[in-house]
Amino acid sequence: MNRPCEHPGCGFLARPSRRTCTTHRNSPPPEPGPAFDGDEVDFVVSNRIPAAGLMRPELISVAGQLGARRVPVEEVADLVGASLRTVRRWQARYAQEGEAA
Ligand SMILES: [Zn+2]
Q1: Residue 31 CA, ligand 1 centroid: distance in Å
Q2: pLDDT value at position 31?
Q3: How far is the CA of 15 from the centre of ligand 1 (A)?
Q4: Are 51 and 87 in contact, with CB atoms under 8 Å apart?
Q5: Which of 9, 33, 59, 66 measures 20 to 30 Å from 50, CA to CA?
Q6: Cα 53 to averaged position of ligand 1 atoms, centre (Å)
């Protein structure tokens, strides 16, 4: 069973035991970014600690979950290090799209 080519948006299957398709064989796949860490998000949300060092999708999730818990937007903004306006936008997006935001 071949894996998909690791080039973003490629859509072809990788060659057997390789990470890329034939088209991308000479361009190495980009370094995988850090994965979304749901445990870290849960930790920040349940302890309400500053979310320093989290990636943007994680910050959006933190802001969304804190908002769902009726944490004041001012406090959320402090925790995620974003403006009130940004927090409101993230919360709206999270409410609409959830973790996929
Ligand atoms: Zn490819």
Answers
A1: 15
A2: 66
A3: 9
A4: no
A5: 33
A6: 31
Which residues lie below 8 Å from residue 12, measured CB to CB, with a gap of 6+?
4, 5, 21, 22, 23
Q: What is the pLDDT along the chain (101 residues), one digit of tens a residue?
A: 678 888 888 889 999 988 889 888 887 666 666 678 899 999 999 999 999 889 898 999 999 999 999 999 999 999 999 999 999 999 999 998 876 54
As a whole number of angstroms, the distance between CA 9 and CA 26 comes to 17
Residue 34 CA to ligand 1 centre (angstroms): 21
Q: How far is the CA of 4 from the centre of ligand 1 (A)?
A: 8
Q: If you search the block for the tokens 């349940």, which residue do you land on?
A: 46
